[in-house]
Amino acid sequence: MCSIAGYNLPERPALNHAFMNLMRHRGPDAEGSVVVDDWVLLHQRLSIIDLSPAARQPMELHGNWLIFNGEIYNYKELRTVHLADAQLKSASDTEVLLHLLDRHGLAILNQLNGMFAFAWYNRAESALHLVRDRFGVKPLYWTPQGNGFAFASEIKPLLLLQERLRWDEEMIRTYLDSGVTDHNHRTFAENIFQVPPGHYVRFRVGHAETFRWYHGADAPPDPAALRSPADADACFEELLTDAVRVRLRSDVPVAITLSGGLDSTTIYVLAKEHLQARLHPFTLVREGFLEDESNNARALAARYGDEATPVACPADLSWDDVMDSLYWLEFPVWNHSPPAYLKVYRAIQAAGCKVVLEGHGGDELLGGYPFHVRAAWHTLLARGRLRAAFEMFCYWQELYHPDLKTKRPHRTPLWLRFLKAGAGDIRRLDRDQFEKSLRRGFERDTLPIILRNFDRLPMACSVESRSPFLDYRVVEWTRRLPMSSKVGPEGSKAILRRILRKHGCEALWRNKHKVPFTVNTAPFITAPENRRRLVEAIHNNHLLAPEGKRQALQLLECATPSLVNRLFVWRAAAVPLMQQIYTGWLPKMTIN
């Protein structure tokens, strides 16, 4: 895990120091640079696999050069299959990748199991290739500058090259309207682009061309394994276990974040039950939050002889903490709870762990959000399965009203509310609505934002986050599962519930209510000094429509704004706060 950067700008010959200063948190263990033809390639290393100097970068073979950020988890298997006769100087996955590229070129990409963003200079073609992994787990940005180009793992270094910082107003308005970011090749800054997931960009003599290399079919599932729910469950458990196994490859200690929910619990249980892995669990204790699952996480860890380290997140997030996290994120996300995650990663760093396993992607693959359950009952209704649709509707209601079965907060009978809701949505019914909802979240609405969140925040603490659910074999297999294995009578992420029940985790099997891994953000919004600053920021938001600005200011007057209202207020204020950060530090940065 590292930072990479580079440029071919003869009129800007001294960018190395400024670029590296801005990304040293990503690679504090070693730095290297090389000039090859007209390109300068920069690398900063977070040492995880092969800690020796032999694994340092940039790396060269036959005149071709590689700088690499990420992990190739199946590097040992690839070395055995493709490089049995090769004389390697290190035990690193980077050198394996360099040799594979030398022998097979970019055709080898579809055999890589990993998260990666790398630059490969092919001297025979006089071409530099920027390559990004299938789902965009690792970031990679670039910018054209006259007849040249520059690239980096984060956006801030590229901002230094802009004569004038110009905001991409369309991208910012999309965030203001919906909270969606990172969903295409553009960024919040004009003329700075990201390499799309599953693509590479080739640079030749002042020309950039983008190619798609991943088409969603690198590990076709065996149809025979879908013959029955039991077969599907067994195959999924085996695949996910293997995804955990290869992500445990590390020459430094490995941690895991345990939220007490389905995703992280499944990863931890499989690591313990099948792999007897040594892991250091960390759990977030959410002070002032009614639904704190940290006790469940600690009890689970104790069951396997581990002691989960609690990380307390106070109910009253400070303004400085929120602004600090906004700096690391580079652009706002939905809410202002990232300081809580930063506290966890700083605790992981302090404990001497450089790698952490996490459950990102599980919700987007298996229908973990309430809106997925809504899409599921709409799908069943469109398919004419009325009884199943009614049962799913009841589950959807229960997610929003956990006490539904005992107190029934509405006088209207559930069946009548089901009929009214179905009639109101009749024109929007779609037999494939559930799967479309999953794809939209995975590719656009949620996962791209999550991946930026959980790249930037752990890397701010020099910690590498690994996500077994984003193993491409797991993703492609999961997309073949029937809806009943994702959202079924057991609840959302049904297949995980069945696996956990098999391993004795009855509490999670029974608990259908989703508790997000977040913090109580209401005290931050309602604190008088914070409210004053938010009002000032909203007034300075020139990209927010006047009616939106009025609405945000009115919502701030509420004594206890609802969650939806808090999210809207945050978006309205976050954009000018982000702009304030950049206009503040950019003039202070110098390129030496």
Kindly describe this structure.
By secondary structure, this protein is α+β, with helices and mostly antiparallel strands. Helix content is 43%, strand content 16%. It contains 24 helices and 19 strands. The chain is globular, with a radius of gyration of 24 Å.
Give the biggest sheet.
6 strands, antiparallel
- Spell out the CATH superfamily of the largest domain: Aminohydrolase, N-terminal nucleophile (Ntn) domain
Spatial arrangement of strands, main beta sheet: 2-3-1-9-8-10
Distance between the termini: 26 Å
Provide the structure class: alpha+beta
Residue runs with pLDDT of under 50 for 5 or more positions: none
How many distinct domains? 4
- Characterize the overall form: globular
CATH architecture of the largest domain: 4-Layer Sandwich
- CATH topology of the largest domain: the name is Glutamine Phosphoribosylpyrophosphate, subunit 1, domain 1
Tally of DSSP β-strands: 19
The top level CATH class name of the largest domain: Alpha Beta
Mean pLDDT, all residues: 91
Helix content: 40-55%
Number of helices: 24
* Oligomeric organization of the protein chains: single chain
Radius of gyration: 24 Å
Strand content: 15-25%
Gist?
This protein is an alpha+beta fold and 592 residues long. Helix content is 43%, strand content 16%.
